[in-house]
Design a protein that fits this description.
By secondary structure, the chain is of the alpha+beta class. It folds into two domains: about 130 residues, Sufe protein. Chain: A (Alpha-Beta Complex); about 130 residues. It is about 35% helix and about 25% strand. The strands form four sheets. Strands 1-2-3 form a three-stranded antiparallel beta sheet. It has a three-stranded antiparallel beta sheet with strand order 6-7-8. It has a two-stranded antiparallel ribbon with strand order 4-5. The radius of gyration is 26 Å and the shape is globular. About 30% of the residues are buried.
Length: about 300
């Protein structure tokens, strides 16, 4: 190689290096500008819960996955489930969740499992944290087949984890409470909160799913109270003089609209607000106030 060609090659290499350095500088600049402009992967730090209302051996069950966001990063997942029993007097929700039961859940002792439910759940949580919420795979019978020392079925956990991560991106979280109706049927009451990057309220909604027991068979209603709308039939305009002037969804929306307009306080009660409890909000609000506090605690 003569000196002239050697110089051209070296100059060409130097030119390519300059282009590469220029490109890298521009990329880092864009990342820096995005950070300065407040662009985030997730809407705001906090806990984002997705849940599913279902059945276990014919009785109600609710399963949840919560993802925790800190400094715009996923720092943890949490799986849990609350089961119940169905007897002659109706539904009885368990006092403890599967996680809270710990070894007493009895999956090892009674079912010969490789490890107790809460242990396997923690292994799934760690696997998600390392590999992503969509990383778990199952065999044809829905048993998890790619997480070390996990042999149980995927009881909707992966779908809920993916949903919770998407909610974190959208700034939507939920909190729920389980209750019983006077006739022994089960209720699930929840609040859905949407916030922006500053933690300010974008939207807030209350809802309830009720159920029935017919000839000893339990069934969740097809529609929630919000979905039923006027068909819920609580207001006097639908023939129930004891229901107040407004339908259930209207009264629930009055509560959430008030909070959106006036802000959230940990000590919020309908009675202490400017809402008219004589003619407007006549529903019992204890469960709603409890679940509202729980959902705001997630984005504290």
């Amino acid at each position: 190689m003569d000196l002239k060609n050697y110089i051209l090659i070296k100059e060409g290499t130097g030119f390519k290096m300059k282009k590469l350095l220029t490109f890298l500088f521009a990329a880092f600049l864009l990342i820096g500008l995005a950070a300065c402009n407040g662009e985030r992967t997730y809407a705001a730090d906090g806990e984002y819960t997705a849940f599913d209302i279902d059945y276990h051996h014919g009785a109600p069950m609710i399963t949840e996955v919560t993802v925790t966001i800190e400094d715009d990063e996923i720092t943890g997942y949490y799986i849990d489930a609350l089961q119940s029993s169905l007897g002659e007097e109706g539904v009885t929700w368990n006092e403890k969740t599967k996680k809270e039961l710990g070894d007493d859940y009895g999956m090892v002792e009674n079912g010969g499992a490789i490890a107790e439910w809460y242990v396997q759940a923690e292994r799934i949580e760690a696997f998600w944290l390392e590999n992503g919420a969509d990383a778990v795979t199952t065999d044809e019978d829905n048993y998890i087949d790619n997480v070390t020392d996990v042999t149980m079925k995927d009881g909707g956990y992966s779908d809920l984890a993916i949903e919770a991560v998407q909610q974190a991106k959208d700034g939507i979280t939920k909190a729920y409470v389980t209750t019983l109706h006077y006739n022994g049927t089960a209720n699930v009451t929840w609040a859905t909160l949407e916030v922006d990057a500053e933690g300010d309220i974008v939207d807030l909604e209350l809802d309830v799913l009720q159920s029935s027991i017919t000839d000893g068979t339990f069934a969740w209603n097809e529609k929630t109270k919000q979905e039923l709308g006027d068909d819920y039939g609580m207001a006097t305009k639908n023939g129930n003089a004891n229901g107040g002037l407004y339908e259930w969804y209207e009264q629930a929306d009055m509560i959430t609209d008030y909070i959106m307009e006036n802000g959230w306080e940990d000590s919020f009660t309908v009675a202490d607000s400017d809402l008219d409890t004589e003619t407007d909000v006549t529903i019992s609000t204890g469960d709603y106030e409890k679940v509202l506090k729980a959902v705001f605690d997630k984005i504290a």
